[in-house]
């Protein structure tokens, strides 16, 4: 059964963040809030936890997976960034954007797109998500909590607990987080291009 932590969305309690990180480090899958929705996460090199997320979301290997990073320095360890992409990401982070970038060798192959060898990268503007990544000291593998057959992410932590209490190890309750999908920007080719317009605004690409 999933544990249930009530964590303040703006001033997270470090002791609860530490406990959440311990759960992740012991192979747990958690539901957590960020600046666009609730999502589920695990350690990026934990194959069993990743497989559990695939089962919950019913994802195939063609899905673009995402790493939640602390800052641009951390991003550069896991993604290849040219000068144009660097300036763009620096201008737009932290914020509700997902950047599709070519993965470095630091990214486990099972997280990369099987043909393109790309990875989604996020630096969310949310205190809980940021503190989780800072405390664990590495990016988190993450997937928006959209249930199979549904079009929007779950927004109520109590509903998440009711529906997934036997699948998850922890639900972080930070109140209702309305589903506002990120803006996805393709940065792996020659041109920088918005491929899904969402919550984030990038007027420099209009």
Describe the structure.
It contains six helices and eleven strands. With 206 residues, it is of the alpha/beta class. A hairpin with a 4-residue loop joins strand 2 (30-33) and strand 3 (38-43). Helix 1 packs across helix 5 (127-136). The longest helix is centred in the N-terminal third of the chain and has 12 residues, at 14-25. Strands 1, 2, 3, 4, 5, 6, 7, 8, 9, 10 and 11 form an eleven-stranded mixed β-sheet that branches. The termini are far apart. It has helices at residues 14-25, 47-57, 72-78, 83-92, 127-136, 157-164, and strands at 3-6, 30-33, 38-43, 66-68, 79-80, 97-103, 118-122, 140-144, 170-173, 183-186, 193-196. 28% of the residues lie in helices and 23% in strands.
* Whole-angstrom Rg: 16 Å
| β-strand number | 11
Silhouette: globular
Structural class: alpha/beta
Share in helix: 25-40%
First CA to last CA: what distance? 46 Å
Question: Could you describe the largest sheet, including whether it forms a barrel?
Answer: 11 strands, mixed
Q: Helix tally?
A: 6
Task: Encode the helix/strand succession as letters.
Answer: EHEEHEHEHEEHEHEEE
- Beta-strand content bin: 15-25%
Low-confidence stretches: none
Q: What is the mean pLDDT?
A: 94
List strands and helices in order, with pairings:
Elements: E1 3-6, H1 14-25, E2 30-33, E3 38-43, H2 47-57, E4 66-68, H3 72-78, E5 79-80, H4 83-92, E6 97-103, E7 118-122, H5 127-136, E8 140-144, H6 157-164, E9 170-173, E10 183-186, E11 193-196
Parallel strand pairs: 1-9, 2-9, 4-7, 6-10
Antiparallel strand pairs: 2-3, 3-8, 4-8, 5-6, 6-7, 10-11
Helix pairs in contact: 1-5
